[in-house]
Design goal:
Length: 295
């Protein structure tokens, strides 16, 4: 990947027009604050066939953004890869449209990667809509950890240490440390890592594609970091909640793909049990969701 720019920002949007507007406004403010302009930074928005005017909003109000308006929803991984194939920059920021960049976040993240040559990725501290700290990092999914999570044991018995490990609930997300998989809402990535690892696996439609990619990054010997010195507001799950049932299915299919790629290790005989078990849990979650919504 030829490097010509300091930073490229990639945003994949789907039916979050008003949030996307605020995201781009705060992004532009911090780009200027960080001394980034058209000469050393590019911003890409890939819209996955939104029906709320997201693409038109970008075209009309943000002419400095490079817009790709898809005619169908290609999924999160494939849409990100569309932009990544057009990017030539030292650092790449993957940013969700339901975020607001806090002042100084971009320069802080870039300075961090400058100072940590072994770091492939750095993630900021995410804040909820009310300004509270969002627990945005998790351990890589282990068989037992995901079983506890899918069975709801971490919610039913939150004080049991073993059930808290996957979501790192004993950590307050208030100090700098290496992590496994930070929330993909905002990730600053050293672009040379894509040359080694490749882009996101398009076999994931949405959810688990970044977990999968981070797992490959760690296995290749790179570091992944979290720093609270940069902050980004994240209005969590605004796209996902519009299609909750589809996202539950996508999440469980993604988890199965992750297991198949990284944990199977020749145990092909477990394939039907893993798939049937995960999809059974998915439909139980869907049924519970529909019952709550009806109530």
């Amino acid at each position: 990947m030829q490097t010509t720019l300091r930073l490229a920002v990639v945003i994949v949007s789907w039916n979050t027009a008003q949030l996307l507007r605020q995201c781009l406004l705060t992004l532009k403010t911090d780009l200027v604050r960080s001394g980034l302009s058209d000469s050393n930074c590019s911003v890409f928005v890939v819209d996955n066939n939104s029906s709320d005017g997201s693409a038109e909003l970008v075209a009309n109000e943000f002419p400095w953004v490079k817009l790709t308006a898809n005619q169908e929803n290609l999924g999160f991984a494939k849409a990100n890869n569309q932009a990544l194939n057009m990017v030539s920059a030292e650092y790449i920021l993957l940013l969700n449209p339901d975020t607001e960049v806090k002042p100084g976040a971009l320069s802080t993240l870039m300075d961090f990667l400058d100072a940590h040559p072994k770091a492939a990725v750095v993630a900021p501290q995410l804040l909820n809509s009310d300004g509270s700290i969002q627990r945005s990092c998790r351990a890589f999914p282990s068989f037992s950890g995901m079983l506890f999570e899918l069975l709801g044991l971490s919610r039913l018995m939150p004080n049991v240490k073993k059930f808290r490990e996957y979501k790192m609930l004993d950590w307050q997300h208030d100090d700098e440390r290496q992590v496994d998989q930070p929330e993909g809402a905002c990730l600053l990535i050293r672009s040379s890592v894509f040359d080694q690892i490749g882009y996101l696996d398009e076999g994931y439609f949405m959810l688990f594609e970044e977990v999968d990619w981070c797992y490959s990054v760690k296995n290749a010997g790179w570091e992944i970091w979290f720093t609270p010195t940069a902050q980004v507001l994240h209005h969590y799950g605004q796209s996902i909640k519009q299609v909750k049932v589809k996202m539950i299915l996508s999440s469980h299919r993604g988890l199965y793909r992750f297991w198949y790629k990284h944990y199977r290790n020749g145990r092909w005989y477990l394939d039907p049990f893993a798939y049937i078990g995960l999809m059974s849990l998915a439909y139980l979650r869907i049924a519970a969701h529909l019952i709550r919504r009806r109530a």
